[in-house]
Amino acid sequence: MPSVDSRIISQLLSVSTPNVSDALDRLGIEGAPQGILPIYNCPKIAGPAATLKLVTAGKAQESTVLGTLRAIVKGGPGSILVIDASDNPKVNAYGGVAGATSKHNGLVGCVTDGVVRDVDEYKGYGMPVYGRGIAQQSVRGRSSCAGYGIDVKLGGVSVRPGDYILADDNGTVVIPHERVAEVVEFAKKVKATEDRVIAEIRAGTDPIEAHEKVNYDNMLKAQAS
Predict the structure, then answer these.
(1) What integer best gives the mean pLDDT of the chain?
(2) What percentage of residues in the chain have a pLDDT greater than 70?
(3) Is the dihedral of CA 154, 58, 105, 133 positive or negative?
(4) What are the beta bridge partners of residue 173?
(5) What is the tens place of the pLDDT at every residue in 68-77?
């Protein structure tokens, strides 16, 4: 079960995924999968990853339904279920029963690079879900579980159990757990700088001067990876 650092969670929730993405760029860390967006108007979420890998039917022995439920229980309170559905991206990766089980076990949300269903049910019990789209069909007979609590990919980005996830209206980011404090500090710096630039522009400062004053372009220049 991933450990949850409440101080880190609070700091992550105080910034945006663009702030964190800028920090990741500046620090030379890959962590910004594209197109994993809120499935409905759900809250921002942050927490350590509880991982799950789904593949096409027959490629693994375990049932997707049972594997998903085991991954949720193993993840535990405060974690975010991260579902690697890249092997079978058009088949439902997360449904209403999984959502209700996640809620009951204290998970704060789910992110996947696949599609999901039962959106009305998530809304009803307040389970934030982020993915690439919505499907109607069942997973049964269409996918299988290749493992949970293992290293996976999310939109091509590596995710290990315990790595930190932040998801909001702009998308989803992945932060290596051993570098989360460093990333959070730079993301806070990015936000503070942008807030300062906006405040100066609103106060009448020339926008170019406001940017140059804080060396904004160079501050956010991505490092070569």
Answers:
(1) 92
(2) 95
(3) positive
(4) 166
(5) 999 999 999 9
Distance, CA of 169 to CA of 184 (rounded, Å):
18
Q: Give the DSSP letter string of the chain.
A: -----HHHHHHHHTS-HHHHHHHHHHHT-----SS-EESSS---EEEEEEEEEEEETTSSSEEHHHHHHHHHHHH-TT-EEEEE-TTSTTSB---HHHHHHHHHTT--EEEESSEE--HHHHHHHT--EEESEE--S-STTTEEEEEESS-EEETTEEE-TT-EEEEETTEEEEE-GGGHHHHHHHHHHHHHHHHHHHHHHHTT--HHHHHHHTTHHHHTPPPP-
pLDDT for 1: 63
